């Protein structure tokens, strides 16, 4: 399955957040070209002249993960997340996505959540857990993302090591992110990557933000990255 959005870390464009009935909705220009699934039985178009009505319809429906309002068509659509099927969204609508609660550990970074999981699991089981959330182990592709994780997760909790999404299991020395892309432009390997351990095909990040090779079968905490929709 292709990723729905590019995972640009910085989101410098228009972002807005509204809260209704304990539910927080989020929108940004980055959502304009995203794809969604109309899987709610009543996800069909409801005429309304007011976007707050659309928000209320979504807030009151436990299955609603997002709503879209078109001020041009004066219509509302509500959505339920479905990770298997994707339909292209119509242009003149603006999408608002229901945010997962930061109380439950979800950290919004650009159009993804980071979720540190404080359960000791091997890399495969950690990956499975992240996939259940609709994501994967985190792909750290920038210094900004590495700094965010170091300061807001590793140092903040003083948890020593987390699995991250990097593996050279397929070809020794060729490190791949979970989406299959090659780790290249950015790295934070301890020892400048010179301390190559052929027997260790996974990677962990430590308190100092440095990455180390790790045995995939060892258990560690891990960090998931989950697209918001
Ligand atoms: C997602 O879509 C597929 C294909 O239409 C369907 O079989 C599945 O039940 C849907 N899942 C949910 C949670 O609605
Ligand atoms: C840590 O999180 C806060 C709040 O989200 C953010 O403002 C800050 O930039 C983050 N730190 C780094 C190094 O990204």
UniProtKB/TrEMBL annotation:
InterPro entries for the chain: C-type_lectin-like, C-type_lectin-like/link_sf, Ca-Dep_Lectins_ImmuneDev, CTDL_fold, Pan_app
Domain of life: Eukaryota
Signal peptide interval: 1-20
Chain coiled-coil ranges: none
C-type lectin domain sequence ranges: 108-225
Keywords, comma-separated and alphabetical: Signal
Pfam families: Lectin_C, PAN_1
Annotated PROSITE patterns: C_TYPE_LECTIN_2 (PS50041)
The protein's name: C-type lectin domain family 4 member M
Species whose genome carries this gene: Hyalella azteca (Amphipod)
């Amino acid at each position: 399955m292709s990723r729905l959005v590019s995972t640009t870390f910085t989101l410098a464009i228009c972002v807005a957040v509204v809260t209704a009935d304990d539910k927080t909705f989020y929108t940004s220009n980055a959502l304009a070209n995203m794809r969604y699934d109309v899987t709610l039985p009543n996800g069909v178009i409801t005429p309304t002249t007011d976007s707050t009505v659309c928000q209320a319809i979504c807030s009151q429906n436990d299955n609603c993960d997002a709503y879209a309002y078109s001020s041009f068509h004066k219509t509302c659509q509500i959505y339920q997340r479905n990770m298997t099927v994707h339909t292209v969204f119509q242009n003149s609508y603006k999408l608002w996505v229901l945010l997962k609660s930061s109380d439950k550990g979800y950290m919004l970074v650009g159009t993804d959540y980071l979720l540190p999981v404080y359960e000791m699991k091997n890399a495969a089981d950690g990956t499975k857990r992240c996939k259940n959330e609709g994501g994967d182990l985190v792909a750290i592709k920038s210094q900004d993302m590495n700094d965010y994780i170091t300061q807001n997760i590793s140092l903040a909790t003083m948890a020593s090591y987390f699995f991250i999404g990097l593996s050279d299991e397929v070809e020794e020395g060729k490190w791949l992110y979970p989406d299959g892309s090659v780790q290249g432009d950015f790295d934070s390997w301890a020892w400048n990557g010179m301390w190559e351990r052929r027997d260790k095909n996974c990677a962990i990040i430590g308190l100092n933000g440095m990455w180390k090779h790790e045995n995939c079968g060892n258990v560690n905490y891990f960090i998931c990255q989950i697209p918001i929709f």
